[in-house]
Structures are given as structure tokens and as C-alpha cells.
Design brief:
The chain has five helices and twelve strands. With about 180 residues, it is of the alpha/beta class.
Length: about 180
Amino acid sequence: METKQDIRKKVFALRKAADPAQIVRMSRQIKEQLISTAAWKKARWIYAYMDCKHEVMTGEILEEAWKQGKRTAVPRVTGADLVFYEITSAGQCENGYFGILEPPETLPAASCEDALLLVPGVAFDKDLHRVGYGKGFYDRYFSVHQEHIKAALAFSWQIFDQVPWEANDISPDFLITESGLIGK
């Protein structure tokens, strides 16, 4: 099995080489699949990441959430942790940790059971194991906030037969690619 570092190098190279128009097209396909899930329909809150460097784009997902009257929150890195803050427009965000857009520290999002949390990742496998970016932000958040339904968003080229994982890694509940849904 490849190491997490080897997988990261491989996926980062694929992301860097990806055609921006293809990223937009596949992100829209993922959005359409996401908004048709029961988890999306049930959620009153959408906790999303702010995409960067050819990740699955979340801007149109946030727009759809606002259009449907859902509340939204995005993370801000605070020390070794993620704290989600409510936003009502992407324009509220500013450059933050590693140049990723972050919300202002104004309205901390209430932790609630009717939230759907959109999970980024470098790579996944069909058993829903996740290779993140290596800092453990999401695993620490998941360990404290177990009430959220977790939906990972990834392009099909981020799915491997098997990825390394550890006992403290927390998997998403399901995964959506432009090719379909994996999991529940």
C-alpha cells in the first residue's frame, strides 16, 4: 500500500494539472448529487469548507444552501482546532490559514444534529477511509462533534483501492464524486 505522503504527492500533482473548466464541471455534478441526498434535504445547517487549489468547489453549494433557506458555516483555524462560524455570503471571508478563505470570528455556529458537514480530503477509498492534509484538524473536530452527518466530496481520481488509515481516523458517513455516491 502507498504511504499517505506518496498519495498526497500523486493527488496534488493531479489537482495541479487538472483543467479548471473540468474542475467546475465535475464540482457542479457533485453539487447536484449532494443536493438530491436525504442528508441534504434534512439538514437545516450546511457546514462547508472553503475550497482551494482545485478541490471540489463549494461556492455553488453554499449559494444553493442560501437559496433553500439553509444556514451555513465555514471553518477558521484557531490554534490546533477548527471553529465553524456562520456566514451569509462568501464575501465575508478573508485570507487565512495557508491562504484559505476563513470567516470572521463573529458568529460561532451552534453545534446541532441537523447539520450536514462537507468534508474535504486528499484521497479516499471505497471503505470511506480518508487521507487528509496531515494536520488532523477534521479528525479532532469529528471526535468532539459526533452529531453531524459527514459527507466527503472528491473527484473520482481521488479514490484509491485502499488508503492507509489509523484507529483514530474518523471516516465520513458517505462520499460523493462526479460518478456517484459511495456509502449510505
